[in-house]
Design a protein that fits this description.
Elements (H helix, E strand, L loop, with lengths): L1 H19 L7 H5 L5 H11 L3 H65 L5 H14 L3 E8 L1 E2 L3 H7 L11 E2 L15 E2 L5 E2 L4 E3 L20 H11 L3 E2 L3 E2 L5 E10 L8 H7 E10 H5 L9 E7 L6 H4 E5 L7 H6 L2 E7 L7 E8 L7 H52 L3 E5 L5 E4 L1 H7 L3 H4 L4 H4 L2 E3 L9 H8 L3 E2 L4 E3 L7 E11 L5 E10 H64 L6 H32 L4 E3 L1 H11 L1 H6 L2 E6 L7 E3 L1 H20 L5 E10 L2 E8 L6 H4 L17 H11 L3 E6 L5 E8 L3 H13 L1
Parallel strand pairs: 23-25
Antiparallel strand pairs: 1-6, 1-10, 2-5, 3-4, 7-9, 8-9, 9-10, 11-12, 11-14, 13-14, 15-16, 15-21, 17-19, 18-20, 19-20, 20-21, 22-24, 25-26, 26-28, 27-28
Helix pairs in contact: 1-12, 4-12, 7-8, 17-18, 17-21, 19-21, 21-23
This protein binds adenosine-5'-diphosphate.
The site of adenosine-5'-diphosphate (ADP) has 22 residues, from helix 21 and helix 23.
Enzyme class: transferase
EC number: 2.7.13.3
Main location: membrane
Length: 792
Amino acid sequence: MYRFQEAGRSMTTARPSARSRQPMKSNLTAGQNERPPGRLRAHLALLQELPFKHWLLALLLWLALSAGMALFGHALVIERYREGFQQSAQQIKQELESRLKVSETLLFGLSEMLGYHPGLSVDRFYNYALEASRRYPFIYTMSYLPKVAARERSGFEQSLPLTDPSAPYIKDHPMAIANDWRNRRGWVPAPDRAVYFPWLIAAPALAKEDDALTGFDMLNDQLFGPVLQKAFRSGETEVTTPFVMMNGETALGYVRAIYRTTPPPEEPGQRTGQVTGSVVLIVRINGLLEQHYPLNNRLSVGLSLYGDAPTPLEKTVYQAMPSANPSSLEVLLLPKLSARLPVDIPYFPYELVVEEQVPESVIQPAILLAALIFSGALCYLMAVVMAQNVRTRRHREDAVDDLYRERGHAMVTLQAINDAVLTVDTQMRVRYLNPMAVKLLGIDPELAVGRPVYQTMQLRYEFARQAVADPIMLCLQRGQGVDLAENCVLAPPDREPLLIEGSVSPLFDRGGELFGAVMAFRNTAPLRQRMLEALEASEKRLRQHEVELARVGRINTMGEMASGIAHELNQPLSAIVSYCQAALSFLDDAEPNKEMVVKALQSSVSQADRAGQIIHRLRAFVTKSQQQWVPVDLNLSVANVMTLAEYDLRTSQIHVTTHLEPGLPLVFADTIQIEQVVLNLLRNAIDAVQARPGWGEMTLETGLIDDRVCLTVRDNGCGLPEEVLDHLFDPFFTTKQHGMGLGLTICHSIVESFGGRLSARNRLEGGAEFRMELPRLSPGHFAQQAASERTI
Ligand code: ADP
């Protein structure tokens, strides 16, 4: 569990930092290789992790944002344009109001003038009107309508100017619906009426076709009649609805009554009786709305009835269309600005309507470009953030996966291991028990978890001389691992006590805070059993090895003995043969049974030959036929011998140093015989060291010298006297009291049989040095072995 925690921690902390801690390589060569620098590459890699749908989302957002920003930008531009438009509309309105007031003032002046001077001459009136229209071009004409009673009609008709012979009379136009006076055939003499208000003077002079108006009883006209009546009653200036004049222009008629008395009576009914005439001023609407300064040619200016009207169409009384036609793109994309401005004149029931189609010139590519770039940057940033989020989420998922995997491993391990594992928190309450812990403690895990650990597990210490601290508490206090004391016994209730061993380790969280401890322990009974068995098996092997070594040693000893006997016996046997041969020659001179003597002596010779052959065969058998040639590791042989001689060395106060060359080549030999040689050299060295007082020193060193595998045994013993050196390897040569003098002889013949060499010398610093050299293993050795087997 603890290892698992550690692994989890290292995993979660190391993983994100691994990338972030990667040093930024200075990438001078990157430009040369045309590869993006490290930071850019990392950035591109980050973006590549973004799923397609996120890219699509970012793209759509980019387009939407661009459109929104472009619209917003253009809305601001259009708003500025609208302000200019409003200013223009206000100017037009002010101009209109001032012209209306001028018209009213002119009319008022004229009416007052005619009221005071009823007999005002036509010329003066005409000049006045002419001057006014010259100054104010919007004035179309001015007219005086005298009140003509029925009895005054004929006198008045006779006084009319005869500019148009066809109309020197007070007349009506039965079809005189508004705007239809051009039809000359419609004029008829007015029937008898109590009073007439005929059109008298038109100044400036009207167009030719309008001359027919002279004598026209305006009171009977459908358009002017009601307005005249209204003006008579109100005493104020009244205005007609717009009408189209004979020249095609739209005009308005201002009407004001002239009273006999000044001021006129207050009662409207009485006022009408006091009327002596009326003045009419006709203004061109076009002229009213006409501007003296250059205006936007896209403006459409008009008049509309103020207040409610049945239909918008009826509301609009005049509309001057703009000179420039808007393009279909403008109509489709851009708004039409409109301003309806009430005219601040009480009798003027119209409002000014100004309209303008916003031109396509307000569409600015720079705004569009800026919107694309700005929103593109925003969306790119958003994509980067999304990619970072995706990466973070993926890392988190990976980490969680790893965590679960590690947890799975840890749980399976904890279930499977033979050690008991128990974890506790800092309050020493049990948090977890693995199956082996449950088994050893003999408790129900459901009941154990959450309970104090001392209720679950009782520990005592056999043969303890002093009180032993609780290992879990100690671990939690110190924050470091604690081994269970020796002879720790677990005493489960109603069960045999168990001798256990183990340790308690602290658990730390990511912040290094201690959050519990884990105790791992095991029952030592099976372990001890296994160790005993292993020990026994090892001893058995050792004994077998020794037996084998002794057996081979015996064989070798016998062989050498036989070899020595043969060596010793060959001389006398040869002498016997010589003497026998001499006897035979002596017998040649005497008379005894010569043939019998010869036969006996020949038998004796053949017997002696046979004995020599038997001895020879025995020697050959001992040195060669018992050998088992195999590849041998000399280091291993030395180690085996050291194990065998360990007891002797320990008890003989000798300090042994071994230098075993690692990777030493193998040799081709008989393992047992090689070990026999090593053991013999070791024993001789022990004898030599013990032959002098004090501590002994011995060194065993393996190595490769001139391509031959060597073992050198050095000691600081008595050394080799000069006279001994020559006979060292002779059979039965010994300087020891109970020595046989065969050990080195056997070693010599064994080493030579493997193609090696055994040599000895004295050391300068005292003591002897024996060196065994063997040829290293080669393919030829196997062929040689096969040949020798065939020989046997
Ligand atoms: P043995 O040990 O029975 O005497 P060996 O053939 O093993 O027979 O030894 C022959 C003799 O060589 C020994 O008696 C001893 O005099 C001499 N010898 C062998 N090894 C050493 C040694 N390490 N130091 C001194 N003398 C040695």
